[in-house]
Design brief:
Elements (H helix, E strand, L loop, with lengths): L7 H13 L5 H8 L5 H13 L3 E6 L2 E6 L2 H16 L3 H11 L5 H19 L1
Antiparallel strand pairs: 1-2
């Protein structure tokens, strides 16, 4: 399996599913994005995300319903991605994300700090 580098539209689509945490049709995603992309463009990208193992697709009547891959399976895919791109080094990955996040808010930084504190506590137990 090759690197999983996501394009801007793929990330935007995945973000719709992360926010809703539900099942969506192509039309649902198109409306949620609020962009001027064509229906067929969104459908093609969503089908690519199915092929990459990020989304699941099931036929429901005349259309397909899409949802995020199960968390355990997505975690496994994320681990492969982390190992391939960052050599398995979590600190390098986090450093990259923080440096690339020009629009990171103070609230997000506090959340990250809390996650670090929790990880330290888990490591001690």
């Amino acid at each position: 399996m090759g690197k999983r580098i996501f394009g801007e539209l793929e990330l935007a689509i995945l973000n719709v599913f992360q926010k809703d945490g539900s099942v969506c049709t192509v039309r649902d995603v198109l409306e949620a994005l609020g962009r001027e992309d064509k229906y067929t463009t969104i459908m093609t990208v969503m089908n690519r995300l199915v092929a990459k193992g990020e989304l699941q697709r099931e036929r429901e009547g005349q259309s397909y319903q899409y949802k995020l891959q199960a968390k355990k399976e997505r975690y496994s895919l994320f681990e492969k991605w982390r190992k391939k791109i960052f050599g398995g080094k979590s600190a390098l990955m986090i450093s990259y994300l923080l440096e690339a996040g020009e629009d990171i808010t103070e609230e997000e930084l506090l959340q990250i700090q809390e996650l670090i504190t929790q990880a330290k506590q888990r490591g001690k137990s």
